[in-house]
Design brief:
Homodimer. The chain is an alpha/beta fold. Helices cover 44% and strands 16% of the residues. The chain is built from seven helices and eight strands; from the N terminus they run αβαββαβββααβαβα. A six-stranded mixed β-sheet has the order 3-6-5-4-7-8, sandwiched between helices. It is globular and about 60 Å long.
Length: 222
Amino acid sequence: MTEDEYFSYFNNITKYNNVSIEKVDAVLVSSVVPNIIITFQFFARKYFKVEAIIVDLEKKLPFTFAKGLNYIGFGADRIIDITEAMQKYPNKNLVVFDFGTATTYDVLKKGVYIGGGILPGIEMSINALYGNTAKLPRVKFTTPSSVLGTDTMKQIQAAIFFGYAGQIKHIIKKINEELNEEIFVLATGGLGKILSAEIDEIDEYDPNLSLKGLYTLYKLNK
């Protein structure tokens, strides 16, 4: 899409929701796709006469990185997740899971980022199973009634759900062992709600963590 197409979409949804487009005085962009960033820079200049604020590590952030940690390529999505997590719980040791296209987890100890991990997202795992086999169907991610599936579709759903939940539980267990301190586990992302209900180790699920983090970052940098 071009900046003009994005503006047409934006104009329609603001009108529908009775939001005055004239009141927009800042545009923030959180993306890991360079072409989209460039398009929205044009969007901000052309329609709002402002320079878009691009989420990156050059901005003022509420956290720092541990010495010796290579943070080159650190994603904008992770920056805004951590920013909001620190805003909500500034005095806790945090583990932030984002169940998106990829699943990421980030660990902060007293406001210092000490490491994390990236694994294939749930939908990515389902698509890989479907795309690389001849007869297995593509299934919807949902909470199964049993770990013992009674047909092919239910078996895939059971294994994906409980297998993925098991991964997350074990990752949290290993983080606990390494930190040997109390941690607070925060989750977000589209499929995080389903998993959070299964994983007792997740203390809170916030579906809007990223959007809130975008606004928090704006307030820190405006």
